[in-house]
Each structure stands twice: as C-alpha cells, then as structure tokens.
Amino acid sequence: MKTKYMNPYLAGFLLGLVLLATVYITGRGLGASGALKSVVTSTVWAVAPGRAAKAAFFQGSHPQGQSPLMDWIVFEALGVLLGAFLSGVISDRLTFTLERPAHVRSWVRILGAFAGGALFGIGSQFGRGCTSGAALSGMAVLSAGGFLTMLAIFGSAYAVAYFFRKLWI
Amino acid sequence: MGPLVPDIISPELNLILGLLLGIAFGFVLEQAGFSSSRKLTGLFYGTDFTVLRVFFTAGVTAMSGVLILNQLGLIDMDVVYINPTFLKSAILGGAIMGLGFVLGGYCPGTSVCGAAVGKIDGMVFVLGGLFGIVTFGELYPSILQIYTANSYGDLLAPQALGISQGQFALLLIAVAVSAFVATTWIEKRVNPESESFRFPRQAHRRAAAAVLVLGVLLAAWPDRKANLLGKAADAAYQRAHPIERVTADELAFHIMDGDQHFVPVDVREAAEFAKTSLPGAINIQPAAMFGKEWRDVLSPEQNRKVFFAQDEADATRAATLASLLGYKNVAVLQGGLNGFTQTILKATAPEQGLPEVEQATYRFRARAATEIATLIKQRGGVKPVRRIKKVQGGCGS
C-alpha cells in the first residue's frame, strides 16, 4: 500500500507559499517549459551552430559566451526533478512504469504522451509559458495574459476531452 | 523591499535559490499526486478534481500574498516580472496546450515530476516537449506575426476589467470556493471511490469561510498608493506635518560649495527636466518613490533632499510623500524654480543707500548667478535615468 496523497487544499496552500516566496525573493514566477527551451537552445547551438545563428528563435536566448543552461529556470527545473524524486522516495512511489488504463495499449499511451508533449512544447511558446509559467505564475501577479492562457488551456481541454475519453476511462 | 534579487541576493546565489525553490515546487507537486497522468486527467472526466483544488488554492494563496506585500509596501511590483499579454498568441497557445493536456495526460511541470518517480509516459512527454519547441523554432519566422500580434504589455486582469486589485481578489476567491463546492458535488456522484468522501468537512468549511473573509478584507483595503498620494496632496495634512523650507540663497550656497550631501530633487516631468534644471539635480517623479529605484539616494539620512518644481506646491506634495514613505531629512525649495530664477539668476542690484547687508547679499547673488548659470549650461540636456530594470522572467523569453 503506497502512501496517500496530501490533502489537495493543503498542497495548494503550500505550493502558493512556494510561489509567493519565489516572487518575493527573485521577482519572477515558477516555470517548466522555459527550462525545456533552454535545453533545446543549448543543444541546437552545440549541434548545429550555423543553423542556430541563422534562426531568429535561437538568438534572443543566447547571451554572448554563456550557455543557455546557466539560467535560473534550468536550475529551478532541476530542483523540480530532485524534489519530486525526493517526495517519491519518502512516500514510496518510485516505480518504473508506463501509466495507462488496462484497455489502452502501451504504444498508444507512448504516442499520446509524445504528441501531448509536442503540443505543449509548441503551445507553451505561443503562450509564453505553460501551466506553471504562464497560468499559475501569471495568476500570482494578476497578469491578464496569464489568466487568458489558463482559461484557454482548460477550456480547450474540456472541449476535446470527450473525443479522447477512450484514452483515460 | 522585495524582490531581493539582485541588490540583496546576488545572481549567483539566485541560481542556488532557484534549485531550492524548484525542489520545494517539485516536492509539493508530487505529494499532491501530480506525478500521475491518470490522476491529472481525472479533472476532465469528473472523477478527480485534485488539479483544480491544488491549482486554484495555490493561485489564490500566491495572489493574496503578493497583494498584501504590495499593500504593505514590501515589494516593488514595478520590478517584478509580469507575464506580458499578447491576446492572440495567449489564446492560441492555451488552446494547443489544452489539447496536449488531454492527449498527453501531463503538462511540462508535472511530466518532469512523473519522470522523476519513474513514469515512462512522463519521460516520453518531456521528449515530446523538446521536439515541440524545436518545431516551433523551425516555424518561427512564419508564425512571428501571430506570436507578436495584439500586444497589451504588462496588462493586469483587474485593470482590464476596470476593477480594483482587491475587488478582483475577492472575485477570484468567490469563484474558487464555488468551484470547489460544485466540483466536489460532481466528483462524489461520478466517482464512488473519490477521496473527497474522506475530506474533513468541518475544517474545509472553516478554511473556506476564512478565505472568503480575507477576500472581503482585501476588497475593502484602500489602495496604498492612492491613499498616500491623497494624503500628500491634502492641505490639512501638509499643515499638520510641515516640511522644512530651504531658501534660494541657501541652495545656491550649497550648489557653489559642491556639497555632495545636498541633493536637489527635481520632481517635474522628465521632458521638462531634460530641457533645464539645477546643477546636480536628479529627476524623481513622485510615483517612482514607491519603488526601490531611488532608495539609495533617498535613504541616507545625511543626504539633505531638496525637492523642487516650477512652484512650491508640486514640490511640497512630493516631499510630503517622501516623508510619508519614511524618508528623512527632506526639504522643499522656497518659491520653487521660479523663485530661484527671480532671486538668484536674475538678481537685481538694490537701490543706493540701503544697508550694507543688502549690498552684500546682492554681491553673493550676482556671483552665484554667474557660477550657477555656467553650471546649468555645462549640464546640457541631461537625460533622466531609469535605473532599476525589470526582472527578466517567464518561460517564453
């Protein structure tokens, strides 16, 4: 029997305090997709510098002589990985599994996860942040764009959920 | 005054703090169950509203906290990163992410949590995310127009709705609590094994009542800036808390003396300041005093800050505000810039036969007029400076 999850309201309150501390200390919010972008940018610069130099998208985020990985958001995301792992150890939830309902085939779940990730990759660039960086952190500082992105994420998810119900229930 | 980076906490230490804050973030997300895609997607099928509960509670907590810090003058929101609003791009991006959420069962932050506890689908989602960003980069030139269209800058949601920040907080709290009640009702009917059957009802009701009271208090709390600006402009308050006056002669003496601790503060518009001002003057608009931009100049008590504008009234308002904000050794130039010009720069010789004191005063003023006029000319068109930059944040920059 694995350990129960934390009461969601308590978890939300604690998460809110972490976000508040982040804004007070650093002047910015929490995020995740920004770190993925840093990984992409640094990889493209390392693998195909000619291509990176030509593409406008990879230029703004590459300060002279400094790796895009020496960025706050990358350290924060590494922390997320560590913190979640720590929580998994404490609550005995470390298992190497592909999580899916019994009737969903493995390859369908893997394909779904990849496609979902890719869509989030694209969408988070348009939204200038994902669920954490745009929606949650935007809410903390009352950003109109943050609220819009949040409404769009959940509105769109509810709009399409019915058509993909076989993936989950 | 927050944010503590970069003047109290160095950029290097900030990276370590990022790691620590990230650890706390990831730990709480995993404890809440966000490492499980089936738990996350329960939100869309009515079986498990954990995401809504955690997300909304976190948002309301952080927002209320930021609002309270701002109202107490403990954080400079002019420096804090505000996610910019690009109407089309924000909605399009959100819509794409919503589809991604249902297909993938994760969002980027939660997929990292899933991957951390060994979920293969979480790891695949992260890879998909990297692929998606590369794709966006490749398409970037052709989508640049949508990406940058309809820019509203740092628009705040309450501003867009035309209500105060406190009223907006109350609205959001009311929506959150209603959503919690409604979704729990749904969840109990859809999912017979819902964890909400085991919730401590009494404690939850008390918490909901407390947070609603907090919302009402936030809505009723008068805006700090408007409040202080009103006080500073109030004649009765100014009479009760008089600001010391500095005469034109005294100011002229200190300017000629090159006294570093005598700081003339020009509170006029930046354009007027750029045209002409007193030698050594700095340009601080009253609203800029709320933040930390000019703290290092205004804080030292040995610095005598002499506020001036075209006339005395504007300067008195600004100096009263500075004093309300806790700054000491604040004074106002008597007669304003107009008076200074009349008394010093255009000093006229007294009539013959007046006492020697008058003659000596005139000799001083005439000398000051030449010296200071030269200093003003040397000053040229000085551009006003904005010294503290906004924090570069967010995920899209």
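qc> Chain B touches chain A through 141 residues (CB under 8 Å).
qc> done
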